[in-house]
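To illustrate the input format used throughout this study, we show a single complete record. The first block contains the structure-token representation of the backbone; no residue identities are included at this stage. The design step must infer an amino acid for every position from geometry alone.
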């Protein structure tokens, strides 16, 4: 009986490793910036898939409301500026298991009904927001009905 259990555990580990390798091999890094494949964050967010990383290089990005609706890592290199131009919610997270780090997020819109934010998490869990700089936003970070979310540094 012990031998059967050991073989079963061993087989489970093997399937887990195969599953992990298959899905991690599928993940891509989509780069945004001058002389990169994507020149706008919006285009990269439209083309990314669950598990991908969207890496944004230094610059000023005025693209209205950016919406993350997939399980991705959204990372800034050199603190790229996401500017809401005092009109828009800058970054909306609408998916579980998202990481947002390394951005300067400025100038969200101002409104009493919509609560526009620098970063707003909508009904999503396991979101990590870390090492960002926020300035001149109606609300900096707002987590609406999220569970097990983290805000660091």
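Output of the design step:
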């Amino acid at each position: 009986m012990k031998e059967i259990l050991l073989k079963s555990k061993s087989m489970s580990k093997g399937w887990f490793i195969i599953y992990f390798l298959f899905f991690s091999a599928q993940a891509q890094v989509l780069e945004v910036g001058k002389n990169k494949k994507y020149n706008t964050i919006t285009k990269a967010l439209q083309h990314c898939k669950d598990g991908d990383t969207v890496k944004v290089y230094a610059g000023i990005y005025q693209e209205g409301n950016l919406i993350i609706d997939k399980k991705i890592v959204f990372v800034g290199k050199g603190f790229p500026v996401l500017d809401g131009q005092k009109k828009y919610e800058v970054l909306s997270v609408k998916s579980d298991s998202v990481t947002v780090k390394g951005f300067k997020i400025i100038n969200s819109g101002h409104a009493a009904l919509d609560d526009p934010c620098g970063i707003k998490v909508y009904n999503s869990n396991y979101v990590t927001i870390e090492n960002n700089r926020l300035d001149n936003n109606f609300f900096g970070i707002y987590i609406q009905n999220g569970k097990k979310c983290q805000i660091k540094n």
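Structural context for interpreting the output: Residues 1-10 have pLDDT under 50 and may be disordered. The longest strand covers residues 117-122.
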